[in-house]
């Protein structure tokens, strides 16, 4: 159980002063830290959800070159936005970002709303993201509590908490708001996150270089590595997915977007090869053949197994089983596209689809 933080004003002032001074001297020069444009900050916060900084940077820069303003994003077609997101994963982030851009243009005169309620009403923006954007862009006095900040707080005050527990998270939120200085709240939030990412790391924290070392209770009690308590990881669920690379005599393949059982979970409603889950004990080629007949009306006896590939999506551990399926003619069907395999990157496709296509390229004549 967490406790309310009781700090002497002197301790509180020392924590704030040291952390802000450390941050200003050590902060990394990240592309979203140039200026205080809320659009750029918002985009970074969304891309950084579930994704490492190093992976985000090239996507962030490319996305901004194509959509430099909230208006340009709002004007774009959804498929174009998804295409520029392809590879980053968690595609609902891109769809929400796009919807929110349209709402900002329609209801907020193209300006990111400054009020917390209005920011929270936008698709894809939760309490943490709103606090981060509003504090950094507009100096709003809102503490941003993400996993990194929760860990720093838990250690700083030696809270024996599991930050993934909702009730305990509430206590940490109170502590983070209590620490937030009324001046520079945006720098403060970034300083806490930066400390958690670079110094107070989940394993083997670098207490020897930490600006808060002699104010930290976990360090004094030799508990830094024991806090927070380890999280129970959900077991990953294995799943076999058979996918068909339908190939006609002109060397064209078919991609589909029609709603199916795995659509949202595995492929996020992006362009994909026709695919189906293969239950334990069933033959993948026969399962796929049945699925192709039932969903696309395609019958073929020419199934050639291609090398399998592994792929992880949230808690699913997928084995992708691609088959080259030769057909005389690819039918014109709603929600489907026909194109040469080498042109697949022209469309917004998921990483799993790209993995299948990459493996298939050497087996398909160009
Ligand atoms: Fe984290 Fe160690 Fe700094 Fe405490 S002293 S905040 S445990 S890095």
Q: Explain this structure to me?
A:
The protein is α+β, with helices and mostly antiparallel strands. The protein folds into 2 domains: 9-220, Hypothetical protein, domain 2 (Endonuclease III, domain 1, Orthogonal Bundle); 237-363, Nucleoside Triphosphate Pyrophosphohydrolase, CATH 3.90.79.10. Helices cover 44% and strands 12% of the residues. The protein has 15 helices and 7 strands. It has helices at residues 9-26, 38-48, 53-66, 70-75, 78-85, 92-107, 116-120, 127-138, 147-156, 166-179, 185-198, 217-220, 263-267, 284-296, 351-360; strands at residues 237-247, 252-256, 275-278, 303-305, 309-313, 316-326, 336-340. The strands form 2 sheets. Strands 1, 3, 4, 5 and 6 form a 5-stranded mixed sheet that branches. A two-stranded antiparallel ribbon has the order 2-7. Strand 5 (309-313) and strand 6 (316-326) form a beta hairpin. Helix 8 (127-138) packs across helix 11 (185-198). The chain is elongated and about 80 Å long. The termini are far apart. Bound molecules: iron/sulfur cluster (SF4). Iron/sulfur cluster binds at residues 152, 155-156, 199-200, 205-207, 210, 212-213, 216, 218-219, 224.
